Amino acid sequence: MNQSEGFLLSLPDDIVLKIVNLLQFSDVCSLSSCCRALKNLCGLDSVWLDLCNDRWPNLEIVQNTLGSLNNGELPVIISADDAVLKGWKEFYIYKHMEISMQSQIVIGSMKYDSNEFVKVKHYQTTMEKLWRFEFEFKDVEIFFFKPNLSGIINLVGLHYCIDCLEIPCDELIEALSRNKIIDRDVIARWWKYGEHFQDILEGFDNEFYFHGVSLEDIALSEVDLFMDLVRTRNSSLTIRLSSCSDI
Fold first, then answer.
1. Which class for 210: exposed (0-12), middle (13-18), buried (19 or more C-beta within 10 A)?
2. How far, in Å, CA of 1 to CA of 16, rounded?
3. At what angle are helices 224-231 and 151-163 packed, to 10 degrees?
4. DSSP character string of 138-158
């Protein structure tokens, strides 16, 4: 037993529990592996209910349980797809695995050409899949803000957080920084624009256009042109996206 474990175990259980309730999912899992006493505390249903509420604040089944948890027998929880789960830890793990599979469907739907570019219409198809799954902010951070993923996938997650979840920019900046992708650049290349973009593109002289921005700039809403391009349904535009890390 190291000094940190010894210090925690010297505290009353209710104090240790308050500390545990401040931790994120991965930290709770790490702490529970230290010793049997901490494993028992980290396995309490109240801890996992708080983790569920923190990650899925809009989930009705969680909100209906807050404040009424019985620390005796574990509750039986019926998920949205009728899976019977015993306790909030089992529910959390089940929900996490479900979202993990859904995120792989979204990420796998992105179509790249031979040069690692993505056509905007394929980008928008991936966005639509993400909208249908109704991920929460922390789901997006866990599965779409990974630095080992394509910058375009990072962009999909960020775009969803801005347009669907309406996450404040300071929270977006914190999440991008935490995952070490805040400086990642994404690039739009386009040509043959129509009248809809004539005013936006005033000052550009050539037929081929190039616009690179960082994820930080997008989170700060400082790149209206770039976001107009990825949102457009204008069929007269040929737009391809890429990330500096992909090419």
1. exposed
2. 16
3. 90
4. HHHHHHH--TTS-HHHHHHHH
pLDDT tens digits, 62-100: 666 655 555 555 566 666 565 667 788 888 998 999 999
- Residue linked to tokens 């090419």: 247
For residue 115, give Cα distances in angstroms to 136, 156, 190, 240, 246: 32, 19, 15, 11, 9
Phi-psi region of 117 (alpha: psi -120 to 50; beta: other; left: phi over 0): beta
DSSP category for residue 164: T
Tell me: the pLDDT tens digits for 155-204? 999 999 999 999 999 999 999 999 999 999 999 887 754 444 555 555 44
H or E stretch including 209?
strand 208-214
- Coil/strand/helix, residue 18: helix
Encoded tokens for 96? 């996490």
Q: Where are the beta strands (DSSP E) in 121-207?
A: 185-191
Q: Which two tokens stand for residue 208?
A: 């081929």
Q: Cα separation of 139 and 200, whole Å?
A: 34
Strand (E) or helix (H) holding 179 = none
Report phi then psi at 205, rounded to 5: -100, -25
For residue 29, pLDDT beyond 80: yes
Task: Quote the Cα angle for 93-147-120, to 5°.
Answer: 100
Would you state the structure tokens that stand for residue 112, as one six-digit string? 């790249």
Query: What is the C-alpha separation between 210 and 29, in angstroms, rounded?
Result: 45
Among 124, 58, 53, residue whose Cα is nearest residue 91: 53
